[in-house]
Amino acid sequence: MTARRLWAAVEPLHAVVYFAPETAAAAKAVGLRGYWMGYFEGRLAPLGPVGPGPATSVLFGFAPGMVARALPDAWSFADPADVVRTRVEAVSDVLRNLVGADHEELADLLERAVDACRFDGRPLAAAWAAVPKPADVVGRLWLATTILREHRGDGHVLAAVHAGLSGLETTLTHIGDGVIRRADVQPHRGWTDVEWDAAVESLRDCGLLDGDRLTPAGKAVRQRVEDDTDRLASDPVEALGDDLDRLLELAVPLSRAVFDAGVVPVPNPMGVSRT
Q1: What digits encode the pLDDT tens for the residues 212-257?
Q2: Does the first or last residue of the chain, that is N or C, have fewer Cβ atoms within 10 Å of its Cβ?
Q3: 138 and 95 in contact (C-beta within 8 Å)?
């Protein structure tokens, strides 16, 4: 649960990038067309111009057809390095306006946590960890939160695949446990009703869903995935030791400010809430 507390404290700071209009405008300014082209190239840019197959694999929860509508075309409109640079600059400006700029202690603690991460089998986290550290404190803070959330996210993919779940099936376990709603996820992940309903039937046939709710067996699978995700995200927490409390003390008020300003909505597709 300690690893989950770290995620809950920093995920809203990272998630500003998905909802602030300034980041979408920055993507458009470098040539990308539409929100989702900006999302996919923006999130994957540190990996370089990957195709829709690898991108779908890495992102895990998105419908292949949705990814293929953006990639590989996006790479012909904007250079990945330009996308990374402008993305970091835009979200840093947004955060600076929301929470101020005097956060060097928090940035230092987040970077300590990042330094403890292992990137074996974690392509998105490894790619963002290779992005040069910004010169300004808020940029450093945002990049560190991004590496930590992708480190946890990559671990979550490993845990779900180990449990025998696809990306959509994993999402359905979250919905079946009441964490998020179908209406909050399906439009943002690109699954058709036919694809969605087929995955629901598959989990029902396996005894993991009863209607749209998890069965006891389904709850056990979901708990195992969450426990494995926390275990795989434990290295940064262990490295911080007693300083984790100080990191949370500094980060939580900033995340609350992000929510209170209405930048990150509740509910949201990540399932993160105001702590």
Answers
A1: 999 999 999 999 999 999 999 999 999 999 999 999 999 999 999 9
A2: N
A3: yes
Q: Taking the CB of residue 38, how many other CB atoms lie within 10 A of it?
A: 26
Cis, bond preceding 72 (omega within 30 deg of 0): yes
Q: What kind and span of H or E run contains 185? A: helix 182-189
> Which residue type is seen at 179?
V
DSSP, res 47: G
Residue with tokens 């991004």: 146
Helix 21-29 to helix 2-19 angle (10° resolution) is: 60
SS3 state of residue 209: strand
Q: Please, what's the largest Cα pairwise distance for the chain?
A: 53
Check the CA dihedral 21-52-64-68 and report its sign.
positive
CA distance 164 to 46: 28
Angle at alpha carbon of residue 271, lines to 141 and 56, rounded to 5°: 80
Q: Which two tokens stand for residue 101?
A: 């700029």
Residue with tokens 């995955």: 199
CA distance linking residue 20 with residue 15, whole number of Å:
9
Q: Are 13 and 259 spatial neighbours (Cβ–Cβ below 8 Å)?
A: no
**What single-letter DSSP state applies at residue 48?**
-
Q: Looking up tokens 């708990």, which residue turns up?
A: 223
Tokens 């039937």, located at residue:
201
Asked whether the CA dihedral 39, 41, 45, 48 is positive or negative, the reply is positive
Which residue in this structure is represented by tokens 């998630």?
A: 15
Is the pTM higher than 0.90? The answer reads yes
pLDDT tens, position by position, 51-82:
999 999 999 999 999 999 999 999 999 999 99
Which of 144, 194, 196, 149 minimizes the C-alpha distance to 168? 196
Tally of CB atoms within 10 A around 217: 13
Structure tokens, 191: 């699954």
